[in-house]
Amino acid sequence: MLEVNRQALDNKSDWFGWLLFIVVFAYFWIGTGPFPSPNDTLILSTYGDSSNQINQLIVIAMTMTVLAALFMNPAGRLILRAYWLPAAILVWLLLIIPLSDSPDSALRRTVYAALVCICSSAILLLPRDRNQFTTLIGYCLLFALGLSMLGVLLRPDLAIHQSTDASEQALAGDWRGHFGHKNTAAAAAAFAFFFALYLRKNKKLWVGNGLLLLSGIFILNAGGKTSLAIVPAVLLIAWLFERLGGLRLPFVLFSVSAFNIVVVSSATSQPVRDFIGALGIDPTFTDRASIWQLALSAIAERPFWGYGFQSFWQTDALANGNSSAATWAVTAANAHNGYLDLMLSGGFPLLILAVIWLVILPSQHASKALRLNNDLTLTRLFIRIWLFALFLATLESPFFANSGPIWFTILIAIFGLQLQAQARLVSEPTPQDITALQVR
Fold first, then answer.
1. Would you call 310 helix, strand, or coil by DSSP?
2. Which end of the chain is more exposed for a tag (fewer CB within 10 A), N or C?
């Protein structure tokens, strides 16, 4: 066992660490423009035209600051070790940019995705210890959900979907908080629910109970049926995962693959649709089947390199193409399936690389962390978030969604599981102590 030590943080560096944590967390969970207008022309424009240069500059500045903090931290090398697979994904996305219909947009989004990945990975090393991490994460989440709740009470026209909105009038009455859409709000509340359980286990009862209440209320009122159904399922699946030993990876691969195949097959197979309908479930999954049909057709045309990173949906090429007259699905914001969107962005090579990074490696890291009994409550938190993301991706597109809290939180869990497999941060050092990082 190798021990890497760093001197106890003085008041100035400690202050810088938690302030940077709050800034990065607030940017992704609250953003620079909370409660966006549902009739904003930026929201209604095609994806390729909706770039926000201010957000890009903010992320660049945050990334530079986070990298500086990372390189000053001896434990930063643990994060650097985790970059090899994301780097391979980045290389592939850069290689296929010339084949994209919108190479400039694909390049911009690829670089932006890399910056988001860096910010998300390093944020776990900013708190001094576990106690500071639980305190910071608890109050940040409580503020974020409290802000959404305040919006519901004071500005329901912005915080609740309305029948007068420029799009998706059928969602009227569903809560969206400051997140802009009820699906994002529901998934964010689900993550907050898992964090609340973690905080309660770490004796942060006041914050944990408040967060548990707010997240529960929001999940129920957001109308996000996917998140509402997945949360209890994930609690059970995570419980099984912890007890399966060497069968953990096969269990996850089979569960996610089987569910994904059945769901997507509803778009192409009548027997599957009949089977799902017999279970009392809408076989179109609220008309996602039309979107999946379009996505599968597009993938069949470019199975190896796809259409460029985030360069298929809400583009002028799609809106004005031959498919636009055949199906309303051309107006969709994404495939409502993270795995299909991976293939649309980079073909089967991107899907394979992403499955290794997001499914196989986290399972191995979680198994090692569980075997070492390394802070079980923190490992369990990351496992729940990770599993939720894998199943959420069968009906939504959370992967590489660079704005908002979803992808950011998923990345925290992915990198967190790797850190749990490699190191342990002492719980609460005294001012005379050092923060000891034990690298296995």
1. coil
2. N
**Quick check: 45 and 171 in contact, CB under 8 A?**
no
Mean per-residue pLDDT, 73-101: 87
CB atoms closer than 10 angstroms to residue 66: 24
Query: Which domain, by its residues, includes 246?
Result: 2-439
| pLDDT tens profile 260-292 | 999 999 888 888 888 888 888 888 888 888 899
How confident is the model at residue 440, as a pLDDT?
41
Q: How many other β-carbons are positioned within 10 Å of the β-carbon of residue 392?
A: 25
Label residue 381 exposed, middle or buried (CB < 10 Å: 0-12, 13-18, 19+).
buried
The H-or-E segment that residue 6 falls in is strand 2-6
Please give the model's pTM, rounded to 2 decimal places: 0.90
**Span between the terminal Cα atoms of the chain, in Å:** 5
Angle among Cα 374, 353, 330 to the nearest 5 degrees reads 120
Query: Which residue type sits at 46?
Result: T
CA distance 14 to 124: 14
The tokens describing 25, both together, are 């967390």
Q: What is the pLDDT of residues 201-224, one digit of tens each?
A: 998 889 999 999 999 999 999 988
Compute the residue count for the chain: 440
Residue 350 CB: number of other CB atoms within 10 A?
23
Using DSSP, state whether 175 is helix, strand or coil. Answer: strand
> Structurally, how many domains does the chain consist of?
1
Amino acid sitting at position 38: P
